[in-house]
Amino acid sequence: MANINRNNVSLKMSAGMPHQFPTDQRPQVAFSGRSNVGKSSLINSLLGRKSFARVSSTPGKTITVNFYDIDKQMYLVDLPGYGFARRSPEEKKAWSALTDGYFVKNKNIDCVKAVIQLVDIRVGPTDDDIMMINFLIDSHMPFFVVATKCDKLSKRAMQKTLDEWENSCFAGTGIRVIPYSSVTGEGREKVWGEILSHLS
Predict the structure, then answer these.
(1) What is the number of other CB atoms lying within 10 angstroms of the CB of residue 110?
(2) What are the tens digits of pLDDT across the range 42-89?
């Protein structure tokens, strides 16, 4: 997997129902996080694109699981964001069905090699984030945390925040946290290194 061409990418599909998920055996790495945490921006940054993954002006507007084909070797999977307060009950039900379907009803769950859990470094882990992280732990799903929007803080403030997380909500868990900025590219190669380590 070290020879993946990150420039050879395409949108395989946007699945609105679990039965639409790809059935081939390519490894998958999924992105999870609340709406407006910066998932699309992170994916664009990882792939060196400006507008490949759609960045919506209305967080949580589109409820689909987007499968991005990376060099015909793997999928980056953008899960719908959670925690968007203005969603209707029907939209929240659709989100739950899709996300639960990805982890619970996914016939290719063995192809999911890791989940990248995004947390806004300025907000910290929300109750929804902690619930998702606990689900991943209980499911024995490999994952790591990416702290997004770290360019919004000074280096000192960023490190202080990461230390606070390690001593509070993540204490004793051994969860790896990688600070990331989609603006500056900080953390890009570290995240790719982590992805490739899970694929191998």
Answers:
(1) 10
(2) 999 999 887 777 654 444 455 889 999 999 999 999 998 887 666 677
Q: How many CB atoms lie within 10 A of CB 134?
A: 11
Between CA 200 and CA 193 the distance in angstroms is: 11
Q: What separation in angstroms does the CA of 43 have from each of 32, 174, 185?
A: 12, 25, 11
Q: For 134-143, how does the pLDDT look when each residue is reduced to its tens digit (9 = 90+)?
A: 999 999 999 9
**All structural domains of the chain:** 9-199 (3.40.50.300)
For β-strands 74-78 and 65-70, DSSP reports them as antiparallel
**Residue 6 CB neighbours (<10 A):** 12
The distance of Cα 84 from the centroid of its chain, to the nearest Å, equals 16
3-state secondary structure the chain: CCCCCCCCEEEEEEECCHHHCCCCCCCEEEEECECCCCHHHHHHHHCCCCCCCCCCCCCCCCCCEEEEEECCCEEEEECCCECCCCCCHHHHHHHHHHHHHHHHCCCCHHHEEEEEEEEECCCCCCHHHHHHHHHHHHCCCCEEEEEECHHHCCHHHHHHHHHHHHHCCCCCCCCCEEECCCCCCCCHHHHHHHHHHHHC
Distance of CA 105 to the CA centre of its chain: 19
Tokens of 169: 């909500």
